[in-house]
User: Fold this.
Amino acid sequence: MIFVLSKYNIDLARAEVEALAGKKGELHENFLVLDAEFDFSRLAYTNKILEFLFHCRRTDLKNKFERFDWNEIYKNNFCIRSNEYKYQKDFAKLVWQSIDNPKVQLNNSDTEIWIYFYRDDAFVGKTVYEREEKFKMRRPDLRPGFFPVSLKPKLAKAIVNLSGVDKGKIWDPFCGTSGILIEASLMGLEVIGTDLDEKMIEASKKNFKKYKIDGKLTLGDSRKLKIDCDCIVTDPPYGRRASLHKSEIEKLYKECLENFYGFVDRVVIMSPSDVDIETKYKKKLVAVDFVHGSLSRKIYVLDR
Ligand SMILES: C[S@@+](CC[C@H](N)C(=O)[O-])C[C@H]1O[C@@H](n2cnc3c(N)ncnc32)[C@H](O)[C@@H]1O
Assistant:
């Protein structure tokens, strides 16, 4: 397969695919070559997935196209697409010549062949999946329970995927308005949310109702609570809105992670870039999310 990753955050897009595939791929710019079958609709930062046909040097491409058996993958009609538009017609001609009864269809083609040029190389594949999800429809401000602390749905979905959990239970111990849990639940995962602030739990309850989510929500302090789950996915306070100082935020991270370490194997956690996370977990910095100006957040996967 060739996963065509969103250029917006390639690190995050790659980590998401690899977490769900359970293996590493080979990255060329924003193309991740990796053989794996899973529910592709879970991916937030992959735009398109191609069945891998071949990879060659740019200079060998014409030759390869002439020798490839296009009849084997052709279905009903075809079109050629490329990130270097000017070559589309020439290569379409080669495919046309090798197919028994060719038909070209530019939109919604049954056989969409992509040529991605990357430096001196060319990757060729057939489209098998295209992401059509409209994340805007689930914008936090359109939810009945809204506070301006919620993660955008696309980012929330991606960090749930970093858990690698296919079927199981996700706990968000700083759930706020449940931006993370809404995405996890829509992917078919079991969810449980806890927060120190009653207003947040009330807001989350309204959101669960809107999205018909059957999950538990309770009040509690993440430094003490023990909840059975397959993975924690969470986004603790950043310190700005909560008017907490950096040292207090660092203390909060340290104390809640000390608690989690006793009973949870994996934690996916976001933190403001200037906050140092001190923990016994093995820390892997997966990606950085640039919010605006000076605010960026690091996304970590912590494993015991
Ligand atoms: C950045 S917000 C989480 C936003 C959430 N991801 C969402 O989509 O709405 C952080 C949350 O942590 C909660 N919080 C702060 N300290 C806490 C603690 N010790 N235990 C549990 N929750 C806490 C705050 O009430 C706030 O709702």
In short: The chain has seven helices and 14 strands. Residues 149-151, 173-174, 176-177, 179-180, 195-197, 200, 221-223, 235-237 surround S-adenosylmethionine (CB under 6 Å). The chain has a mean pLDDT of 94. The radius of gyration is 23 Å.
